[in-house]
């Protein structure tokens, strides 16, 4: 600060008993010696009651303004800054461009003229979460703090402990954490392709009737459709012949076992019969396998083998449990052997596919965590583990796919759901988490009110990142373990603004 503010200002709070003490750099001892100074005389360098959108605000050290005619400290062109070059004051006064109330050119006074904008302020939004010499640069999603203002060294003092309790202030303890950067991207839920099953038959077949519809959950062995095929009768007759031959060879093997036990035949004769029996069994098993591949189940095959009845109609059975996601074949359509008739998927196994930009893909690794929020059910979050990161980009939209496997077995996702994917990564930097309601924009700075005693609360300037959920990630200004005001922070902010810059000279605005 260019001057030390030592003032004791009576405030009118909800209880009428709050006192704001501006002690400047000298601390509490200076407050004891302070004399009263009217609020209108208090400087508030850098105050902007209605700054541009966050992404357009000129931000102290967050933006490299090298080579730009801009004073980062006072937010005016460097060549016209009367704070830095007081010889310019007379020139502005001679032209009648002077605000005597605030000691600034009228064309620079944002208090009197909130709509003031300079071309240098139109700077694109920069990314957050960068590190410079171990320090965190805060994203321009939030307005920057003034380098010097009346908030420096101030604190709010209640007349008594009972008064403080009656105001209804609540505090929470700030806790340390690691800074997390969050990548967000559009995403879609799809079935796990590794668990999908294609239903087909090894014989040419015509679908005469479907027994299930898309979306139906089917069990293993359940009949899906009734098919017709001339080829199936040939396989059935092969099965009957193989079954009969196998039964004959089994009986012959039993007879040979009795004879070798009585030494009526040689070991070679017995071994030969045993081989013939194994050959017949193999042909029978092969015939059964062909019918299973055609779509029949074991009970159907046993019925054909025992009864000997042949038919060109048979039921197509599901080889696995799943949900019918597609009926490929149409009624009356004759399909070639091996053509897909339907597709099943496991409803408990899902993928989340997010589309990331080229720059985002560079910061994602297999094994990381992904959180999906459905558009239709934004309050529900489902976690996933990243199992694949695309190494090529879509030529049309220049995005790549990141695939995550849903790890919650009790999820209620549906294939085709759209939503947002969040990929959270820690970068090793230390931050402090505070509730978002604790951070207040008091006119020129983002502040958090820290409880020192039950009667005393000190505003701290903070730099911070957005956070996931109800917390901000504080880069500087608050230490882990300190108690910050949550409910009632707005009241303290209101009193701070009224006393530091003059009541009614600016609007009350939210952070960011």
Q: How many strand elements?
A: 26
Unreliable residue stretches: 1-66, 123-141, 500-512
How is the largest sheet built, in terms of strand order? 1-2-5-23-22-21
Strand residue percentage: 25-35%
Structural class, please? alpha+beta
Largest sheet: 6 strands, antiparallel
Give the termini separation: 25 Å
What is the arithmetic mean of pLDDT?
76
Helix content: 10-25%
Shape descriptor reads elongated
Q: What is the radius of gyration computed over CA atoms, rounded to a whole number of angstroms?
A: 40 Å
Key structural traits:
single chain; 512 residues; alpha+beta; 6-stranded antiparallel beta sheet; 6-stranded antiparallel beta barrel; disordered N terminus; disordered C terminus
Structural commentary:
The protein is an alpha+beta fold. Among the domains are: 58-136, no CATH class; 230-311. Helices cover 21% and strands 30% of the residues. It has eight helices and 26 strands. The protein has helices at 28-33, 89-94, 161-166, 230-261, 267-294, 298-307, 358-361, 489-501, and strands at 7-10, 18-22, 130-132, 135-137, 154-158, 171-173, 175-191, 197-200, 205-210, 217-218, 223-228, 313-317, 322-327, 334-335, 340-345, 350-357, 369-374, 381-389, 399-406, 418-435, 439-441, 446-451, 456-461, 463-465, 471-476, 483-485. Strands 1-2-5-23-22-21 form a six-stranded antiparallel sheet. A hairpin with a 6-residue loop joins strand 17 (369-374) and strand 18 (381-389). It starts with 6 loop residues before the first strand and ends in an 11-residue tail after the last helix.
């Amino acid at each position: 600060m260019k001057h030390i503010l030592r003032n004791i200002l009576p405030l009118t709070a909800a209880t009428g008993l709050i006192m704001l003490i501006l002690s400047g750099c000298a601390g509490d001892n200076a407050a004891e010696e302070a004399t009263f100074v009217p609020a209108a005389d208090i400087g508030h360098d850098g105050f902007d009651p209605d700054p541009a959108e966050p992404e357009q605000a000129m931000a102290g050290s967050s933006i490299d303004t090298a080579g730009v005619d801009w004073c980062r400290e006072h937010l005016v062109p460097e060549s016209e800054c009367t704070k830095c070059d007081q010889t310019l004051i007379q020139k502005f006064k001679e032209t009648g461009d002077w605000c005597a109330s605030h000691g600034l050119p009228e064309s620079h006074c944002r208090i009197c003229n909130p709509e003031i904008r300079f071309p240098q302020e139109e700077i694109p939004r920069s990314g957050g979460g960068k590190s410079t010499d171990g320090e965190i640069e805060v994203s321009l999603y939030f307005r920057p703090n003034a380098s010097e203002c009346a908030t420096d060294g101030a604190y709010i003092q209640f007349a008594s402990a009972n008064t403080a309790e009656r105001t209804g202030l609540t505090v929470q303890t700030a806790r340390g954490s690691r800074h997390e950067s969050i990548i967000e991207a559009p995403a879609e839920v799809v079935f796990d392709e590794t668990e999908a099953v294609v239903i087909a038959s090894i014989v040419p077949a015509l679908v005469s009737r479907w027994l299930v519809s898309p979306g139906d959950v089917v069990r293993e062995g359940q009949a899906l459709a009734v098919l017709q095929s001339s080829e199936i009768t040939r396989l059935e007759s092969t099965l009957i012949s193989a079954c009969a031959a196998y039964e004959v060879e089994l009986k012959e093997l039993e007879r040979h076992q009795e004879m070798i036990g009585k030494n009526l035949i040689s070991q070679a004769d017995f071994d030969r019969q045993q081989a013939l029996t194994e050959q017949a069994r193999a042909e029978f098993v092969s015939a059964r396998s062909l019918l299973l591949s055609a779509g029949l189940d074991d009970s159907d095959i046993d019925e054909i083998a025992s009864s000997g009845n042949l038919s060109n109609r048979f039921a197509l059975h599901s080889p696995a449990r799943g949900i019918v996601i597609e009926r490929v074949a149409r009624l009356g359509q004759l399909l070639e052997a091996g053509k897909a008739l339907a597709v099943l998927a496991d409803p408990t196994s899902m993928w989340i596919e997010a589309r990331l930009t080229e720059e985002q893909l560079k910061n994602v690794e297999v094994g990381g965590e992904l959180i999906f929020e459905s558009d239709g059910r934004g309050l529900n979050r489902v976690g996933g583990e990243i199992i694949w990161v695309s190494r090529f980009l879509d030529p049309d939209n220049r995005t790549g796919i990141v695939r995550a496997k849903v790890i919650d077995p009790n999820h209620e996702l549906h294939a085709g759901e759209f939503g947002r994917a969040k990929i959270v990564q820690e970068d090793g930097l230390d931050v402090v988490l505070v509730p978002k309601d604790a951070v207040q924009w008091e006119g020129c700075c983002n502040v958090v009110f820290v409880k020192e005693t039950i009667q005393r609360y000190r505003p701290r300037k903070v730099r911070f990142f957005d956070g996931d959920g109800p917390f901000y990630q504080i880069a500087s200004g608050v230490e882990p373990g300190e108690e910050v005001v949550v409910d009632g922070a707005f009241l303290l902010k209101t009193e701070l603004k009224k006393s530091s810059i003059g009541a009614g000279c600016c609007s009350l605005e939210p952070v960011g």
